Amino acid sequence: MSDRQALLRQIPSIDRLLGSEPLQELAATCPHVLLREGAQQAVAEVRQALLDESSKTPDCSVEGVAGRAAELAKIAARPSLRRVINVTGTLLHTNLGRAPLCEAALQAVNNVSRGYSNLEYDLDAGKRGKRFTHVEKLVCRLTGAEAAHVVNNNAGAVLLALAALAGGKKALVSRGELIEIGGSFRIPDIMAAGGTRMVEVGTTNKTHLDDYRRGIDEETSLILKVHTSNYRILGITEPVTGAELADLAHAHKLPVLEDLGSGLLLDLTTYGLPREPTVRETLAHGIDLVTFSGDKLLGGPQAGIIVGRKEIVDRLRKHPMARALRLDKMTLAALEATLRLYLDTEQAFRELPTLRMLSTPAEKLRERCDQLMPRCEKTLGNLAKFATIQSTAPVGGGALPLAEMPGWVIACQPLKLSLNRLLQNLRKAETPVIGRVQDDQLLIDPRTLAEPDEELLLQTLKDALTP
Ligand SMILES: *Cc1c(COP(=O)(O)O)cnc(C)c1O
Question: Per the structure, how many domains does the chain have?
Fold first, then answer.
């Protein structure tokens, strides 16, 4: 009998493993079913390694196998949706949850959802109320709109508006605005889903007011304008302004819907960012209905905000789809708290993480790199090479497509393992770290790194850089 066969018989039993110290220690915090599965999987791994003559002889001791079982049980017990440290510098990373919430929003969620709330209860009248009223006045005040409604996200807002205003009828849209966002939001598809017959007007780069005029017939019920949030047509283009479009539509008694995407409440040009129309300006041009996201530059929770003329917003509210897209209390609480900060512009820039990070000047990022560098070199100097370099990051989330925020980053080049291995280790960490890669280096952008996370980042880097 070979050594390996002898070892096969010595693999500890599941019960033996469950009684071992590593698994007993975990029993207080980890469900039994996961401990058992961890033990089974660890045994299967050892058995597999023993049967495979080409692999190294595995550790078959109780401590060895139980250690591995505990590791597997811990991984299985941790939540699937977890926080990560974002050092990509991209503020609105759709894959990383877009806008981080402000403290006030988190507190509001806590207050409102731990127990009961007046979600649909009118405290003045002592009878049934409507959930959207908690944010309607605020949204109107911040945008100048007559009425406002909120739904699950901006895709839902556009879908609801199309279904309510142009279901079974025709809607005009420029060929230059048939966008796709994030792979699943595509204007032609969303129009079809809303039961709207899409009538394309103009060409890819140029659409004239006359193209819209010629497209209108007795079956037309809406003109749709879409903000090209994640791309731009450069060169010879000819945008029709919102005001021109609104005048044309109103002459034919048609409403204009504009999907604004990110939906800015404040002008950001003072921070060196390109001019983008605010929601207030868009409405002031005469657009009847505007939709935008809650979790892009607004800096709040995922939501779709609809603003515009009262008579039109009321039509949306009465549509059956409004019920299917309604917001839950946690989101409403977070959204109201976020919007309240906008009543004071300075406060909004101070307390909303998205605006704070967006407005951080390059010199400030340089200072943070200068403070981080010696700490990296001191604790990780033997594991990687570090350098502070100038670099730009996109805003992300389909907001300000051509804006690159100038800044400074720390470039990290691993010495003891490959870059791919480092990235993999960082993803597998207890608190995963996601960065951006350029020229075979990991770039650590302080713009999206909260200062209290610096220590954890250094520790995670240390583990991940160690072979
Ligand atoms: C982001 C975006 C959407 C989708 O918004 P969600 O809130 O992600 O549903 C729709 N239209 C435009 C123009 C966008 O930029």
Answer: 3
Residue among 98, 174, 229 whose CB has most ligand 1 atoms within 8 A, to mutate:
229
pLDDT of the residue at 282: 96
Pair 400, 285 in one domain: no
Decide: 160 and 323 in contact? Cβ < 8 Å. no
Look at residue 36 and tell me whether its pLDDT is greater than 90. yes
385/327 same-domain check: no
Going from the Cα of 400 to the center of ligand 1, the distance in angstroms, rounded, reads: 13
The answer to whether 384 and 375 are in contact (CB under 8 A) is no
Q: Are residues 339 and 400 in the same domain?
A: no
Same domain, 332 and 363: no
Q: What is the DSSP string of 211-232?
A: HHHHH--TTEEEEEEE--TT--
* CATH number of residue 453's parent domain: 3.90.1150.110
pTM over 0.70: yes
- Report pLDDT digits (tens) over 351-406: 999 999 999 999 999 999 999 999 999 999 999 999 999 999 888 876 676 678 88
Q: Ligand 1: distance of its center to the CA of 156 in Å?
A: 9
Question: Quick check: CB of 386 below 6 Å from ligand 1?
Answer: no
Residue of 92, 95, 185 to test ligand 1 pocket, by largest number of atoms within 8 Å of CB: 185
**Statement to judge: residues 392 and 250 lie in one domain:** no
Q: Is 131 in the pocket of ligand 1 (CB under 6 A)?
A: no
Cα angle: 395, vertex 401, 402; to 5 degrees = 100
From the CB of 261, is ligand 1 less than 6 Å away?
yes
Judgement on whether residues 54 and 163 belong to the same structural domain of the protein: no
Point out which residues pair with 386 in neighbouring strands. Answer: 412
* CA 79 to centroid of ligand 1, rounded, Å: 28
pLDDT category of residue 124 using cuts at 50, 70 and 90 = very high
Give CA separation, 27 vs 39, 80, 414, in Å: 13, 20, 37
Separation of 262 CA from ligand 1 center, angstroms? Answer: 7
Taking residues 159-169, report their average pLDDT. Answer: 98
Taking CA atoms only, the protein residue closest to ligand 1 atom 11 is 261
Domain boundaries, position 449 = 85-95+357-465
Query: Which of 351, 370, 386 represents a domain boundary (last residue)?
Result: 351
